[in-house]
Write a structure and sequence with these properties.
The chain is mostly helical. 53% of the residues lie in helices and 6% in strands. It is built from 9 helices and 3 strands. Strands 1-3-2 form a 3-stranded mixed sheet. The longest helix has 21 residues. Keywords: Hydrolase, Metal-binding, Metalloprotease, Protease.
Length: 234
């Protein structure tokens, strides 16, 4: 795979103009109850408090020694393009695109997707910037386990009915995520995804299964908590 000069590779930061740009940050006085930021923060708190996907991931990260805190590890910001969120590995912070997330269900999926990246960052010590396969693996896992490719979401995209549709959805969404944040060709991205797809698609931690809906995620969350109690009693 062709190596990019570091100065030519911004690792997707152009999509998140508020990152490391103090002049673009709004003052507290300019934030009202009706701004995107306030709505984003409210929806974020609801997601963390009520989504079984998010609750399981937060518990798993805490169990792994990487507890996530609302004020430290989540940031609502304006983003460019149609990106909904991102994980900034340099600051261990999840970015939520307040100008592109307008519904609670969407917020829940984005929070879950980015928490999977945060969990991988904690558990697997992912080399996001130098190992392309590491990035591909985490994107596969996030697309597979976050609900991005649920039946309902795919119906809303008018995509359904083909054999192994879930796998194809995961592959395509992983590719889209990689191409959004890396200056590489689709061919190179496909090679990276293909090289790790089977192992990463079958890695279901911390859920222990592919959670296709909230009920599945809720059962996985209960099992995770019971598993923790089981091991503590051995």
């Amino acid at each position: 795979m062709e190596q990019k000069n570091e100065k030519d590779e911004d690792y997707g930061y152009q999509l998140f103009p508020d990152r490391h740009n103090e002049t673009s940050k709004r003052s507290a006085l300019g934030t009202s109850l009706f701004t995107f930021k306030h709505k984003c923060q409210v929806m974020l708190r609801i997601a963390l408090d009520t989504s079984p996907y998010a609750k399981l991931l937060l518990e798993a990260m805490k169990h792994s020694g990487c507890a996530a805190y609302l004020d430290r590890h989540f940031s609502c910001e304006d983003c460019d393009g149609i990106v909904s969120g991102g994980f900034d590995a340099t600051s261990s912070q999840i970015v939520l695109c307040q100008n592109n997330i307008h519904q609670q269900a969407h917020m829940n999926r984005v929070v879950t997707h980015e928490l999977i990246h945060a969990f991988d960052h904690c558990r697997a010590h992912v080399d996001w910037f130098n190992n392309f396969k590491h990035l591909a693996c985490s994107e596969i896992r996030a697309a597979n386990l976050s609900g991005d490719c649920s039946f309902g979401n795919e119906i809303s995209r008018f995509k359904f009915g083909i054999k192994q549709h879930h796998q194809e959805c995961v592959r395509e969404r992983a590719l889209r995520s990689i191409l959004a944040v890396r200056n590489v060709s689709r061919e190179d991205a496909e090679k990276a995804v293909d090289s790790v797809f089977n192992s990463c698609f079958n890695d279901h931690e911390p859920f222990g299964r592919i959670p296709h809906n909230n009920a599945d995620a809720g059962h996985a969350y209960k099992e995770f908590k019971n598993r923790d109690r089981y091991y503590s009693n051995i």
